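Fig. S4 source data, part A: sequence.
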Amino acid sequence: MTTRGLRNLLSLAVLLLMMLLPFAAASAGEAEPSGIPSSCWAPASLSEDVAAVISDEKRWSCDTREFSIDAERVLLRFEIVPGEPLPRYFLSRRAALAAVHLLAIDRDGAIRQDTIPAAALRSSMAGGYFKAHLPEVTAETRQIVAAIDLPSHKMTLERAYLAPVDAAGDVSDMRFALLLAGLAGMLVMPLIFNAAFYRALRETFVLWHTALTFSLLATILVTSGLSVLLFDPPAMTLSWMTTVIFGMTVASGAMFTYSFVEPGLMHRLLRRVLPWCAAWAIFLSVFHAAFPFVARPIQSSAYTAAFAPVLAIFMLSMIDAWRRGSRAARYQAIGYAPMVAVGLIRLVTGLVPWLHSTDAALLFYAGCVCEVVFTTLGVAERFVTMKRERDRARNEAELLERLSETDALTALLNRRAIERQFEQLRAEGFCALAVIDIDHFKAINDVNGHSIGDEVLKAVARALQPGPHVRAYRLGGEEFVLLLRGEDAETQAELRRQAIPAIVAHTVPGLGRPVTASMGLTALAGCEDFAAIYERADKLLYEAKSAGRNRTRGGCVGAAVGQGFAGDMARSA
């Protein structure tokens, strides 16, 4: 990610956050939805006749809204005020249930009833709500009763209301839907950035951040009216999808923390526990989605409470990593702060009996913006840091490798280098190998000293002139090797050998006599390795020395005939 890209992402995220803040301000309290709320409620069993329960006033609780889902069926009563717009829909928070029975009761006692099984309930444009068409409501209708079979969450009772139209029917609702669509679109950008990051730096935390971002994107889609606009699945489908995706979000967040915080900057026990927290979150969500009625009266509360240890471990991990100096933890802690607040709100309101449950959805959406901004910035900074460290390590390794393959005296490459490079150079068209040995070099050392001998070796290295078509190596002592390519490879090798006396005389004066060299020159056969070719060239070198020194002995083999080698020959300088 470029600096400009990060700046643009930050600007867009801040803009969306500022636009979401008015909506999120009331999120903790989560005001009652506009419409007709229930006035009374009554418990019942599935075997009881709904009409009989409705007529028994002693069964109704009208002085408290402390709903209970202990009963198999819960009835909600709504009073219709004459002169007010007539309701057409029953809406409530999505959660697992068996069926909804809707009854319209007229002033004269006439009842019209519809039963909607859970699978037939449609999703509302109000995020997280389902809707059901009421039976015919007329000016004579005085009450609407909704009987909910096997409700699994108190929010289904607490958030129930009647409305003349579905949600998103005015400008403010559409504006909020557009903001959520913009947030969903912004969450796609980190996915693109992560793809680029992972191609350059194969780190698992990039994959987990991708999973986290994807799960947040999916949560926004399934908990808002966007899902209804895009593909309109059944309400109960979105209900279990929301539960499973929530587990995925918690699990990917835990694994992102596990892999993102720098090594050594989190207590080992906390880091070891985080994958177990991820597995626990997945298990809880899948079990709760698949079996919502196993312990129905307490299951939702138990499900919420079971995430408390995960939230506690995450908070401890962030505090510990921050205290140890983790930069990654700082980005995460800031980015996740609204999400932690959402988790605390859900825990408190879901477990304290006298509080109405809330999922703090609006605060969650604002938290998504913070998560996108700060964790993506954290990933980008970590990417840059790791890339810089890897580049530095790679450069140091290359430097050490060059040093290990370079002759310290002459600065030419050594035998290790030629053995490593040989096959590649042959594939690049190098077709000849020459072994060069300085004549009577021992005498030079004996007469002039080893320091003068070293100067002679340096001068010989300069005479060999490495270039694009010539590679020069020092194998040790006074022995050198040339690898050459081109039709004039033989000529290039010979010119370098013949240049040695003049360059040495100019560079190291006072030697008393010319310094000459002998050379064995051979072609590279396609199937031979370096050792075999070197051995043949070395034999030709010793033939040159035996023939009187200061000369070249050349030979050709197999497919090398015609490459410029004239068979056995000898040249004298």
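Fig. S4 source data, part B ends here. The mean pLDDT is 84.
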